[in-house]
Amino acid sequence: MSKQRKALALISGGLDSLLAAKVMQEQGIHVEGVNFYTGFCVEGHTHAIRKKDKAKPKRNNALWVAEQLGIKLHIVDIVDEYKDVVFNPKHGYGAHMNPCLDCKIFMVRKAAEWIEEHDFDFVITGEVIGQRPMSQRKDTMPVVQRDSGIGDRLLRPLCARNLPETLPEREGWVDREKLYDFSGRSRKPQMALAAEFGFEDYAQPAGGCCFLTDEQYSVKLADLWQARGKREYELDDIMLLKVGRHIRPAPHFKLIVAREEGEGKFLQGYRKQYPNLKTTSHGGPLTLIDGELNEQELELAARIVARYSQGKQAERVDLEYTDSEGRVREMSVAPLPAHEMRKQWIL
Ligand code: SF4
User: Fold this and answer.
1) Is ligand 1 within 6 A of the CB of residue 132?
2) What is the Cα–Cα distance from 288 to 258, expressed in whole angstroms?
3) What is the C-alpha to C-alpha distance for residues 81 and 72, in angstroms, rounded to an integer?
4) Which terminus of the chain, N or C, has less C-beta within 10 A?
């Protein structure tokens, strides 16, 4: 009896990785999935927080895909190791702060290490030639194979027939004729294949699988580095960039103002780590303060927060200021009028 071959699938939670894994299962390959957690992942985060997005499903799509396929999913935390990819991408950034090619190389390298340790035979991805401008081009696909060190143990079932043969095909573990030759940005072939397999409900990723492809998010990340004078971040920093309105009235401090109830509740969890302001005379958003403020700046911060409260038309708004030691003090300010609010403060 021939040996049961095993593949590790990179699962982002999108349709492509779902289909690629399914195609392998159809060929009798034992598939397990891996999902790398970088901290920038879109998966469920914002939708899970925002109250107005309540109607949207809050599922983790990677887990959902694994469930659809009936496979084991390994969620691997790579937050720290991934920083170097974000700080120093050898192949540069995409349209925003997304180092897609280096990211893909890094993840495939991690997957290659994983299969080595777990005695798996090859790695699969849901990549399609021409689908993404940076990491999924015909000329960059071999770069991923080369720089990750995986060589021909990387199979892309959805576009394999447009690419040179890989080890699993050569060895006859999989039948190349039953692989696909998708290319380009159109999603129609994938949707047709999904229908063939009977998948009706799947995630429709727009733009990318992480926040680094988002323009606004990238602006906030660049601002964070500029304010700190160096490229660095902790997990809390990058989580907070996903939430709230970020206002920087001066280079050394920033306000993170909840935009709605769900975000306010999320920010509550950070109250002990950050000085914060909360209106008491009127309904208003919880606001975290990132940075050190003098008295004058604190007054300005309070006036900005008052402006985003229900008392923005009132003469005075009362607030509670909690400093980094947890000491609470009452404040009363006039909300900042619209003409004094500078556009460039808002990130
Ligand atoms: S979108 Fe984000 S996670 Fe996806 S390849 Fe690009 S940098 Fe990596």
Assistant:
1) no
2) 9
3) 24
4) N
